[in-house]
Specification:
The structure is a homodimer. Chain A is α/β, with parallel strands linked by helices. Chain A is built from 14 helices and 14 strands. Chain A has two domains: 238 residues, Alkaline Phosphatase, subunit A; 149 residues, no CATH class. In chain A, the strands form two sheets. Chain A has an eight-stranded mixed β-sheet, with helices on both faces.
Chain lengths: 415, 415
Amino acid sequence: MIYANRLHHEGVKKILLIIMDGLGGRPSGLLGGRTSLQAAYRPNMNFLVRNGIGGLMYPVSQGIRAGSDTSHLSILGYDPRVVYTGRGPFEAMGLGMDVSKGDVAFRANFATRADSGFISDRRAGRIQESTDELCRAISLNVGGVTFEVKPGVEHRAALVMHGDHLSSRVSDSDPHEAGKPPLDITATVDSAKRTANVLNQYLERIRKILDDHPFNRDRVSNGKLPANELLIRGAGMAPDLQDFQSKYGLRAACVAGIPMISGICKLMGMDIIHAKGVTGRLDSDYESKISSAVKSLDNHDFVIVNLKGPDIAGHDGNPLAKRDVIERADSAYRQLVSLGHRVVISITGDHSTPAEYGDHSGDPVPILIYTENGRKDCAKRFDEVSCSRGSLRILSGDLMQYLLSVSDITEKYGA
Amino acid sequence: MIYANRLHHEGVKKILLIIMDGLGGRPSGLLGGRTSLQAAYRPNMNFLVRNGIGGLMYPVSQGIRAGSDTSHLSILGYDPRVVYTGRGPFEAMGLGMDVSKGDVAFRANFATRADSGFISDRRAGRIQESTDELCRAISLNVGGVTFEVKPGVEHRAALVMHGDHLSSRVSDSDPHEAGKPPLDITATVDSAKRTANVLNQYLERIRKILDDHPFNRDRVSNGKLPANELLIRGAGMAPDLQDFQSKYGLRAACVAGIPMISGICKLMGMDIIHAKGVTGRLDSDYESKISSAVKSLDNHDFVIVNLKGPDIAGHDGNPLAKRDVIERADSAYRQLVSLGHRVVISITGDHSTPAEYGDHSGDPVPILIYTENGRKDCAKRFDEVSCSRGSLRILSGDLMQYLLSVSDITEKYGA
């Protein structure tokens, strides 16, 4: 029903969707009771909402504390309650690993296994050193399956299995508490038996490698806990997502600094645009990112941009840094204010990350939609409070349909 | 997905949900075109919404004229379209009867059966005297089933069957119009045949008791219609509701003046708190009720309070009495304004009962959610009009999820 079959009609517009990661906030004492977004100097976003419409979006559904993965899936019209099988593949993509169709991925912890065979510390003393070397040592082939491990923060890592006929219907090796041995992997369905067997072989093989590794010998001689066990959990397959262009009829591109978001968009068959100076950190070059996105509109119908900054500052618990990075984004949006005659511009968040809370919350996110000669409403500034006067109250899963309708790109439903 | 698995984390808050029964109204000529809520002096509710968020809630769904039973089920996250099998058990609970799992309950009318065996008046002349004595006379054991009858208003009553292997899949004895005989109960499925048989035996047995009862002899000699037939309808089973604590992970309590609401909460396994001076009428002691609720938060994670007053005044068609009882509630809410650091407070209605209309309407109800350091919006006063400037537009079935997210009590969905 929402296929873009009027794409080549005159006056039809392209769509630019900017996701400011973790945008929503809560009042901050450090900002006189305002949110970071309220406190930011944001003339461009205010221009866009004042000349367009504003409101609130509920990521996934009302009151859900959405992750960036589930929320981006939902925003792009792929219901996570259907396509999301587990965090494993998204954590792995987040570490820059390639997770393709048919691969199985796990979240992993380096842990300490005592001589008794029991886990004495699930986090191997929260390792501060890079485990890159360890990860490379245990990335190997076992039973025709390629196992790839990459380090995350501290004791965390991800494991991806590349091979044929793999299944994610297997249990965790992680006993989820210390004082117990690592668990054998078991298949929860018959067709996963081979996957479980090869996983058990692999985990047995790497125990010896980890025990003997110089990294761990050094740790022990320095009185630290060795990282001699890899506990795995949250098995998931890369979701088999319908190609974005065949779903909507739109040639699409993604400009994102963080691998998890590009990974999701790649699974949808989008073109991945690498803009200069983009880091996925607070120092990312937003001018470059927005100008790459605008350029990409020349040969794409739909461009999605993710700016990770607000989420990082939110997780850091720093409402001032969050305000500052929002101001820097707004400054780059100067490039957008003259595009309304040919582009539908929407700016929103994938979830709230209030700096005062330091994690994702279930609060809704502000949203604006602007295009020349489009609807206007009573939202006069772009923030959590003023947008509550706007017209939009929308579930993330309905956003694509709404944007397509604003761009006059879809066929009439009925006569 | 909305299970409270972060319950023991620091900063997680408890939840107090106050349902002002029938709260929503319509403009009243007697109040200068204002609703009873707009006309009420309500500094405490205004404080809570001004420092929190406001909006409108749709009981069950938009435009539904919800009952208190269906609405409370929905508000607590039990979809009445799934769990609600009929009014019988809720009417019976409303009369203070114990309806447990496996019981079958009916709405009942005392009616007049003429010598011909036909019903001459379905309401036995709208009896004004108490039928308590009659009800006791026809509460008895037949065929291993205990039949219990309790009086309602005028000619109304409820019948509960306590026994094994009962079924609610049986027809009414009520012919729903005068000039017809009472109908035989029939089973609509095979497994209900025993229930139908024992019901027919019971109804036959009590005809003689009612015919001969002094209450009816007196009525006849005074020229009144005898209440010599019990017409039953709306068979339903007590719904088999998932335990609230296993559903949400929250220890919960209920403070309610009316038996129907405590009955519903009891079916969910909540603790029922009996506050002093609570009557379920307009004169109920709201100070006592609110202080009991606040005390209950010490050893519960979630407390629901029902204040029946606004609904009673609404049904009475008295917008001034409705205003006054709302003012009395607001005065008791003085106890709440300092709790925001440890409690998420939400005040709303289960449905609208506009006094000008005198019954439940399908209008949405105002809602507020307040906690310290939580979101704010543009709702500045707590009433039907000002709340329409607030951020919330919520279906009752999504409220629990929303409240849990405001209390930061649930796990993240995704990464």
